Amino acid sequence: MELPVEQTFQQAVVAHKKGKLQEAADLYNVVLKTHPTHPDANYNLGLIAISVNNIESAVPLFKTAVEANPKIKQFWLGYISALAKSNQIEMAKIVLKQGRKGGLAGEEVDTLEVQLKKITPSKSRQKKNKANNQNANKVNPPQSQLNNLIEQYQMSNYKEAERLGLLLTQQFPKHQVAWKVLGAILGQTDRKAEAIYANQTAVALSPQDAEAHSNLGITLKELGRLDEAVASYKQAIALKPDLAEAHCNLGNTLKELGRLDEALASYRQAIALKPDFAEAHSNLGITLKELGRLDEALASYTQAIALKPDYAEAHSNLGVTLKELGRLDEALASYTQAIALKPDYAEAHSNLGITLKELGRLDEALASYNQAIALKPDYAEAHSNLGITLKN
User: Fold this and answer.
1) What share of the chain is helix, strand, coil (3-state, %, to 5)?
2) Torsion angle of alpha carbons 122, 127, 130, 135, nearest 10°?
3) Which pLDDT belongs to residue 139?
4) How far apart are alpha carbons 18 and 285 in whole angstroms?
Protein backbone atom coordinates (compact mmCIF):
# COMPACT_ATOMS: atom_id res chain seq x y z
CA MET A 1 0.00 0.00 0.00
CA GLU A 2 1.24 3.47 -0.79
CA LEU A 3 2.45 5.42 2.24
CA PRO A 4 0.18 8.46 1.77
CA VAL A 5 -2.88 6.19 1.84
CA GLU A 6 -1.66 4.45 4.98
CA GLN A 7 -0.96 7.79 6.62
CA THR A 8 -4.47 8.97 5.75
CA PHE A 9 -5.89 5.80 7.24
CA GLN A 10 -3.92 6.24 10.47
CA GLN A 11 -5.10 9.87 10.72
CA ALA A 12 -8.65 8.59 10.35
CA VAL A 13 -8.12 6.06 13.14
CA VAL A 14 -6.78 8.77 15.46
CA ALA A 15 -9.78 11.02 14.73
CA HIS A 16 -12.10 8.04 15.23
CA LYS A 17 -10.62 7.24 18.64
CA LYS A 18 -11.00 10.88 19.69
CA GLY A 19 -14.68 10.78 18.80
CA LYS A 20 -14.29 13.12 15.80
CA LEU A 21 -16.59 10.97 13.71
CA GLN A 22 -17.18 13.29 10.77
CA GLU A 23 -13.47 13.96 10.38
CA ALA A 24 -12.73 10.25 10.60
CA ALA A 25 -15.47 9.41 8.09
CA ASP A 26 -14.10 11.97 5.63
CA LEU A 27 -10.61 10.51 5.91
CA TYR A 28 -11.83 6.91 5.55
CA ASN A 29 -13.68 7.98 2.40
CA VAL A 30 -10.45 9.50 1.04
CA VAL A 31 -8.79 6.10 1.51
CA LEU A 32 -11.69 4.33 -0.23
CA LYS A 33 -11.47 6.60 -3.26
CA THR A 34 -8.13 5.05 -4.20
CA HIS A 35 -8.54 1.70 -2.39
CA PRO A 36 -12.30 0.91 -2.45
CA THR A 37 -11.83 -2.57 -0.98
CA HIS A 38 -9.57 -1.47 1.92
CA PRO A 39 -10.99 -3.81 4.60
CA ASP A 40 -10.19 -1.78 7.70
CA ALA A 41 -11.40 1.52 6.22
CA ASN A 42 -14.68 -0.13 5.17
CA TYR A 43 -15.14 -1.76 8.56
CA ASN A 44 -14.38 1.39 10.56
CA LEU A 45 -16.63 3.48 8.34
CA GLY A 46 -19.33 0.87 8.96
CA LEU A 47 -18.85 1.29 12.70
CA ILE A 48 -19.36 5.04 12.35
CA ALA A 49 -22.53 4.43 10.33
CA ILE A 50 -23.83 2.13 13.08
CA SER A 51 -23.02 4.72 15.75
CA VAL A 52 -25.27 7.26 14.02
CA ASN A 53 -27.95 4.60 13.42
CA ASN A 54 -27.38 4.52 9.65
CA ILE A 55 -27.69 0.75 9.40
CA GLU A 56 -28.47 0.70 5.68
CA SER A 57 -25.12 2.34 4.86
CA ALA A 58 -23.22 0.07 7.25
CA VAL A 59 -24.29 -3.22 5.63
CA PRO A 60 -22.41 -2.85 2.30
CA LEU A 61 -19.35 -1.48 4.10
CA PHE A 62 -19.13 -4.51 6.39
CA LYS A 63 -19.82 -6.77 3.42
CA THR A 64 -16.88 -5.30 1.50
CA ALA A 65 -14.63 -5.70 4.55
CA VAL A 66 -15.55 -9.39 4.84
CA GLU A 67 -14.99 -10.03 1.15
CA ALA A 68 -11.62 -8.24 1.22
CA ASN A 69 -10.37 -10.08 4.30
CA PRO A 70 -12.58 -13.00 5.37
CA LYS A 71 -10.12 -14.08 8.07
CA ILE A 72 -11.09 -11.28 10.48
CA LYS A 73 -13.81 -12.37 12.90
CA GLN A 74 -14.92 -8.83 13.76
CA PHE A 75 -15.69 -8.11 10.13
CA TRP A 76 -18.09 -11.07 10.05
CA LEU A 77 -19.68 -10.12 13.37
CA GLY A 78 -20.19 -6.54 12.20
CA TYR A 79 -21.72 -7.66 8.90
CA ILE A 80 -24.07 -10.24 10.46
CA SER A 81 -25.15 -7.87 13.24
CA ALA A 82 -25.86 -5.10 10.74
CA LEU A 83 -27.95 -7.47 8.64
CA ALA A 84 -29.92 -8.45 11.74
CA LYS A 85 -30.42 -4.80 12.76
CA SER A 86 -31.71 -4.00 9.28
CA ASN A 87 -34.22 -6.86 9.64
CA GLN A 88 -32.47 -9.03 7.05
CA ILE A 89 -32.68 -11.98 9.43
CA GLU A 90 -32.60 -14.78 6.89
CA MET A 91 -29.66 -13.21 5.07
CA ALA A 92 -27.86 -12.82 8.41
CA LYS A 93 -28.32 -16.55 9.04
CA ILE A 94 -27.02 -17.38 5.57
CA VAL A 95 -23.93 -15.22 6.06
CA LEU A 96 -23.31 -16.75 9.49
CA LYS A 97 -23.52 -20.23 7.99
CA GLN A 98 -21.14 -19.17 5.24
CA GLY A 99 -18.72 -17.83 7.85
CA ARG A 100 -18.94 -21.05 9.87
CA LYS A 101 -17.88 -23.02 6.80
CA GLY A 102 -14.84 -20.78 6.53
CA GLY A 103 -13.82 -21.38 10.15
CA LEU A 104 -15.73 -18.60 11.94
CA ALA A 105 -15.98 -19.66 15.59
CA GLY A 106 -15.87 -18.46 19.17
CA GLU A 107 -18.12 -17.42 22.03
CA GLU A 108 -19.23 -14.19 20.35
CA VAL A 109 -20.22 -16.12 17.24
CA ASP A 110 -22.15 -18.69 19.27
CA THR A 111 -23.99 -15.92 21.13
CA LEU A 112 -24.91 -14.18 17.89
CA GLU A 113 -26.19 -17.43 16.42
CA VAL A 114 -28.42 -18.00 19.45
CA GLN A 115 -29.76 -14.45 19.17
CA LEU A 116 -30.57 -14.92 15.50
CA LYS A 117 -32.43 -18.15 16.21
CA LYS A 118 -34.61 -16.33 18.74
CA ILE A 119 -35.70 -13.74 16.17
CA THR A 120 -38.70 -15.10 14.31
CA PRO A 121 -39.93 -13.56 11.05
CA SER A 122 -42.96 -12.17 12.83
CA LYS A 123 -40.82 -10.43 15.46
CA SER A 124 -38.61 -9.05 12.74
CA ARG A 125 -41.61 -7.61 10.94
CA GLN A 126 -42.86 -6.01 14.13
CA LYS A 127 -39.75 -3.82 14.11
CA LYS A 128 -40.55 -2.39 10.70
CA ASN A 129 -42.38 0.83 10.26
CA LYS A 130 -46.08 0.98 9.48
CA ALA A 131 -45.58 1.36 5.74
CA ASN A 132 -43.43 -1.77 5.57
CA ASN A 133 -45.97 -3.70 7.62
CA GLN A 134 -48.64 -2.77 5.15
CA ASN A 135 -46.41 -3.83 2.27
CA ALA A 136 -45.59 -7.16 3.93
CA ASN A 137 -49.27 -8.08 3.88
CA LYS A 138 -49.37 -7.59 0.12
CA VAL A 139 -48.16 -10.18 -2.35
CA ASN A 140 -47.23 -7.97 -5.29
CA PRO A 141 -44.94 -4.93 -5.27
CA PRO A 142 -45.69 -1.95 -7.51
CA GLN A 143 -44.86 -2.90 -11.10
CA SER A 144 -42.58 0.12 -11.39
CA GLN A 145 -40.35 -1.19 -8.57
CA LEU A 146 -40.24 -4.64 -10.11
CA ASN A 147 -39.39 -3.23 -13.54
CA ASN A 148 -36.60 -1.18 -11.97
CA LEU A 149 -35.16 -4.29 -10.29
CA ILE A 150 -35.20 -6.26 -13.55
CA GLU A 151 -33.76 -3.35 -15.51
CA GLN A 152 -30.87 -2.89 -13.06
CA TYR A 153 -30.11 -6.62 -13.24
CA GLN A 154 -30.21 -6.70 -17.04
CA MET A 155 -27.88 -3.69 -17.17
CA SER A 156 -25.46 -5.58 -14.85
CA ASN A 157 -25.81 -2.89 -12.15
CA TYR A 158 -25.59 -5.66 -9.58
CA LYS A 159 -24.98 -3.53 -6.49
CA GLU A 160 -28.11 -1.46 -7.05
CA ALA A 161 -30.06 -4.51 -8.21
CA GLU A 162 -29.11 -6.36 -5.01
CA ARG A 163 -30.24 -3.43 -2.88
CA LEU A 164 -33.59 -3.34 -4.68
CA GLY A 165 -33.94 -7.12 -4.55
CA LEU A 166 -33.32 -7.28 -0.81
CA LEU A 167 -35.75 -4.43 -0.25
CA LEU A 168 -38.51 -6.07 -2.30
CA THR A 169 -38.05 -9.51 -0.75
CA GLN A 170 -38.29 -7.95 2.73
CA GLN A 171 -41.35 -5.86 1.91
CA PHE A 172 -43.06 -8.48 -0.27
CA PRO A 173 -41.72 -11.82 0.99
CA LYS A 174 -44.30 -13.84 -0.94
CA HIS A 175 -43.49 -12.34 -4.33
CA GLN A 176 -41.67 -15.07 -6.24
CA VAL A 177 -40.17 -12.98 -9.04
CA ALA A 178 -38.26 -10.76 -6.61
CA TRP A 179 -36.66 -13.83 -5.00
CA LYS A 180 -35.92 -15.27 -8.44
CA VAL A 181 -34.12 -12.15 -9.60
CA LEU A 182 -32.28 -11.84 -6.26
CA GLY A 183 -31.03 -15.42 -6.69
CA ALA A 184 -29.73 -14.55 -10.15
CA ILE A 185 -27.99 -11.43 -8.82
CA LEU A 186 -26.28 -13.34 -5.99
CA GLY A 187 -25.21 -16.00 -8.47
CA GLN A 188 -23.72 -13.43 -10.84
CA THR A 189 -21.77 -11.84 -7.98
CA ASP A 190 -20.29 -15.23 -7.05
CA ARG A 191 -22.17 -15.64 -3.77
CA LYS A 192 -23.53 -19.07 -4.48
CA ALA A 193 -24.24 -20.02 -0.86
CA GLU A 194 -26.52 -16.98 -0.49
CA ALA A 195 -28.05 -17.58 -3.93
CA ILE A 196 -29.18 -21.05 -2.85
CA TYR A 197 -31.59 -19.65 -0.27
CA ALA A 198 -33.09 -17.15 -2.71
CA ASN A 199 -33.49 -19.79 -5.43
CA GLN A 200 -34.99 -22.32 -3.02
CA THR A 201 -37.46 -19.68 -1.84
CA ALA A 202 -38.42 -18.92 -5.45
CA VAL A 203 -39.06 -22.63 -6.04
CA ALA A 204 -41.08 -22.96 -2.81
CA LEU A 205 -43.25 -19.97 -3.73
CA SER A 206 -43.88 -21.23 -7.26
CA PRO A 207 -43.26 -25.00 -7.50
CA GLN A 208 -44.54 -25.07 -11.11
CA ASP A 209 -41.96 -22.54 -12.35
CA ALA A 210 -39.59 -24.62 -14.50
CA GLU A 211 -37.09 -21.78 -14.87
CA ALA A 212 -36.84 -21.42 -11.08
CA HIS A 213 -35.96 -25.13 -10.77
CA SER A 214 -33.38 -24.71 -13.55
CA ASN A 215 -31.84 -21.67 -11.82
CA LEU A 216 -31.58 -23.65 -8.59
CA GLY A 217 -29.85 -26.41 -10.55
CA ILE A 218 -27.27 -23.96 -11.91
CA THR A 219 -26.38 -22.78 -8.40
CA LEU A 220 -26.23 -26.31 -6.99
CA LYS A 221 -23.88 -27.35 -9.81
CA GLU A 222 -21.58 -24.41 -9.17
CA LEU A 223 -21.43 -25.43 -5.50
CA GLY A 224 -20.44 -28.95 -6.54
CA ARG A 225 -23.75 -30.49 -5.43
CA LEU A 226 -24.08 -32.33 -8.73
CA ASP A 227 -26.67 -34.98 -7.88
CA GLU A 228 -29.00 -32.32 -6.46
CA ALA A 229 -28.42 -30.21 -9.58
CA VAL A 230 -29.42 -33.14 -11.78
CA ALA A 231 -32.65 -33.53 -9.78
CA SER A 232 -33.45 -29.81 -10.18
CA TYR A 233 -32.84 -29.86 -13.94
CA LYS A 234 -34.98 -32.99 -14.33
CA GLN A 235 -37.79 -31.32 -12.38
CA ALA A 236 -37.54 -28.28 -14.65
CA ILE A 237 -37.73 -30.52 -17.71
CA ALA A 238 -40.69 -32.44 -16.28
CA LEU A 239 -42.53 -29.13 -15.88
CA LYS A 240 -41.43 -27.74 -19.25
CA PRO A 241 -40.10 -30.41 -21.62
CA ASP A 242 -39.18 -27.84 -24.28
CA LEU A 243 -36.83 -25.85 -21.99
CA ALA A 244 -33.67 -26.27 -24.07
CA GLU A 245 -31.41 -24.52 -21.54
CA ALA A 246 -32.36 -27.03 -18.83
CA HIS A 247 -31.50 -29.95 -21.15
CA CYS A 248 -28.12 -28.35 -21.94
CA ASN A 249 -27.37 -27.63 -18.28
CA LEU A 250 -28.36 -31.18 -17.39
CA GLY A 251 -25.88 -32.35 -20.01
CA ASN A 252 -23.13 -30.21 -18.46
CA THR A 253 -23.75 -31.75 -15.04
CA LEU A 254 -23.97 -35.32 -16.34
CA LYS A 255 -20.69 -34.77 -18.21
CA GLU A 256 -19.04 -33.58 -14.99
CA LEU A 257 -20.35 -36.73 -13.28
CA GLY A 258 -18.71 -38.82 -16.00
CA ARG A 259 -22.04 -39.96 -17.43
CA LEU A 260 -21.03 -39.06 -20.98
CA ASP A 261 -23.61 -41.04 -22.95
CA GLU A 262 -26.42 -39.44 -20.94
CA ALA A 263 -24.80 -36.05 -21.46
CA LEU A 264 -24.80 -36.61 -25.23
CA ALA A 265 -28.51 -37.39 -25.14
CA SER A 266 -29.23 -34.20 -23.18
CA TYR A 267 -27.22 -32.00 -25.57
CA ARG A 268 -28.91 -33.56 -28.58
CA GLN A 269 -32.32 -32.95 -27.04
CA ALA A 270 -31.38 -29.32 -26.41
CA ILE A 271 -30.31 -28.97 -30.05
CA ALA A 272 -33.48 -30.66 -31.30
CA LEU A 273 -35.53 -28.11 -29.37
CA LYS A 274 -33.32 -25.16 -30.30
CA PRO A 275 -31.23 -25.87 -33.43
CA ASP A 276 -29.39 -22.54 -33.20
CA PHE A 277 -28.18 -23.22 -29.63
CA ALA A 278 -24.45 -22.66 -30.21
CA GLU A 279 -23.41 -23.53 -26.63
CA ALA A 280 -25.19 -26.91 -26.86
CA HIS A 281 -23.38 -27.72 -30.13
CA SER A 282 -20.04 -26.77 -28.57
CA ASN A 283 -20.68 -28.78 -25.39
CA LEU A 284 -21.74 -31.73 -27.52
CA GLY A 285 -18.39 -31.41 -29.27
CA ILE A 286 -16.50 -31.42 -25.97
CA THR A 287 -18.25 -34.62 -24.90
CA LEU A 288 -17.71 -36.32 -28.26
CA LYS A 289 -14.01 -35.45 -28.03
CA GLU A 290 -13.80 -36.97 -24.54
CA LEU A 291 -15.30 -40.14 -26.04
CA GLY A 292 -12.63 -40.11 -28.76
CA ARG A 293 -15.10 -39.36 -31.55
CA LEU A 294 -12.98 -36.59 -33.05
CA ASP A 295 -14.59 -36.21 -36.47
CA GLU A 296 -18.03 -35.84 -34.88
CA ALA A 297 -16.61 -33.36 -32.37
CA LEU A 298 -15.13 -31.38 -35.25
CA ALA A 299 -18.55 -31.17 -36.89
CA SER A 300 -20.16 -29.94 -33.66
CA TYR A 301 -17.58 -27.20 -33.09
CA THR A 302 -17.88 -26.12 -36.71
CA GLN A 303 -21.65 -25.84 -36.35
CA ALA A 304 -21.29 -23.85 -33.11
CA ILE A 305 -18.96 -21.39 -34.85
CA ALA A 306 -21.27 -21.10 -37.86
CA LEU A 307 -24.08 -20.12 -35.48
CA LYS A 308 -21.90 -17.84 -33.34
CA PRO A 309 -18.77 -16.70 -35.20
CA ASP A 310 -17.42 -14.79 -32.18
CA TYR A 311 -17.54 -17.88 -29.93
CA ALA A 312 -13.92 -17.89 -28.75
CA GLU A 313 -14.22 -21.10 -26.69
CA ALA A 314 -15.56 -23.04 -29.69
CA HIS A 315 -12.65 -21.82 -31.86
CA SER A 316 -10.17 -22.94 -29.19
CA ASN A 317 -11.84 -26.33 -28.73
CA LEU A 318 -11.88 -26.77 -32.50
CA GLY A 319 -8.14 -26.11 -32.43
CA VAL A 320 -7.61 -28.80 -29.78
CA THR A 321 -9.46 -31.36 -31.90
CA LEU A 322 -7.65 -30.37 -35.10
CA LYS A 323 -4.34 -30.77 -33.29
CA GLU A 324 -5.28 -34.26 -32.11
CA LEU A 325 -6.13 -35.09 -35.74
CA GLY A 326 -2.66 -33.90 -36.75
CA ARG A 327 -3.95 -30.87 -38.64
CA LEU A 328 -1.54 -28.48 -36.92
CA ASP A 329 -1.68 -25.50 -39.28
CA GLU A 330 -5.48 -25.47 -39.06
CA ALA A 331 -5.22 -25.76 -35.28
CA LEU A 332 -2.94 -22.70 -35.23
CA ALA A 333 -5.53 -20.75 -37.20
CA SER A 334 -8.28 -21.70 -34.74
CA TYR A 335 -6.24 -20.71 -31.68
CA THR A 336 -5.25 -17.45 -33.33
CA GLN A 337 -8.89 -16.67 -34.04
CA ALA A 338 -9.87 -17.51 -30.45
CA ILE A 339 -7.20 -15.13 -29.13
CA ALA A 340 -8.26 -12.38 -31.54
CA LEU A 341 -11.80 -12.67 -30.18
CA LYS A 342 -10.72 -12.97 -26.54
CA PRO A 343 -7.16 -11.66 -25.98
CA ASP A 344 -7.16 -12.64 -22.28
CA TYR A 345 -7.98 -16.30 -23.06
CA ALA A 346 -5.08 -17.96 -21.24
CA GLU A 347 -6.00 -21.51 -22.30
CA ALA A 348 -5.95 -20.55 -25.98
CA HIS A 349 -2.49 -18.98 -25.60
CA SER A 350 -1.25 -22.15 -23.90
CA ASN A 351 -2.80 -24.43 -26.54
CA LEU A 352 -1.24 -22.27 -29.24
CA GLY A 353 2.10 -22.77 -27.52
CA ILE A 354 1.67 -26.56 -27.52
CA THR A 355 1.00 -26.61 -31.25
CA LEU A 356 3.85 -24.23 -32.05
CA LYS A 357 6.17 -26.48 -30.06
CA GLU A 358 5.06 -29.52 -32.08
CA LEU A 359 5.82 -27.55 -35.24
CA GLY A 360 9.33 -26.85 -33.91
CA ARG A 361 8.69 -23.12 -33.53
CA LEU A 362 10.06 -23.04 -30.00
CA ASP A 363 10.64 -19.30 -29.58
CA GLU A 364 7.04 -18.58 -30.58
CA ALA A 365 5.87 -21.36 -28.25
CA LEU A 366 7.78 -19.73 -25.37
CA ALA A 367 6.07 -16.41 -26.07
CA SER A 368 2.63 -18.08 -26.01
CA TYR A 369 3.30 -19.87 -22.72
CA ASN A 370 4.61 -16.68 -21.15
CA GLN A 371 1.49 -14.83 -22.26
CA ALA A 372 -0.73 -17.56 -20.80
CA ILE A 373 1.11 -17.32 -17.47
CA ALA A 374 0.94 -13.52 -17.47
CA LEU A 375 -2.84 -13.79 -17.84
CA LYS A 376 -3.21 -16.67 -15.36
CA PRO A 377 -0.22 -16.87 -12.99
CA ASP A 378 -1.46 -20.08 -11.32
CA TYR A 379 -1.78 -21.93 -14.65
CA ALA A 380 0.24 -25.02 -13.74
CA GLU A 381 0.03 -26.67 -17.16
CA ALA A 382 1.42 -23.57 -18.88
CA HIS A 383 4.32 -23.41 -16.40
CA SER A 384 5.05 -27.09 -17.03
CA ASN A 385 4.92 -26.72 -20.81
CA LEU A 386 7.13 -23.64 -20.61
CA GLY A 387 9.68 -25.64 -18.62
CA ILE A 388 9.64 -28.50 -21.16
CA THR A 389 10.12 -26.08 -24.05
CA LEU A 390 12.98 -24.29 -22.29
CA LYS A 391 14.63 -27.69 -21.69
CA ASN A 392 14.25 -28.57 -25.34
Assistant:
1) 80, 0, 20
2) -50
3) 64
4) 65
